[in-house]
Amino acid sequence: MPTICVFYGITIRMYYDDHNPPHFHVIYGNFAAKLNIDTGNVIAGNLPGRVLSMTQEWSKIHRTGLIENWRRCQLHEPLQALAPLE
To answer: Which of 7, 11, 25, 72 could form a cystine bridge with 77, CB 3.0-4.6 A?
Structure first.
């Protein structure tokens, strides 16, 4: 599972051959969740409130890159790293 970004202890990853809807995985300590790329909503799992807010802010900024990485995952192409939230 390629890591595409790490910031403030938050790791963002995508799986190859993952199922729809387009989403990304977030890991923070013992917490893990899947977030929908289009809406930023949690599909599964849970995160602390502040971590979820920062991740949703980051995903809005990088929506185009996330969509492109989702496409790359489906084609088994290397993923592009995305800039962290500052």
So the answer is: 72
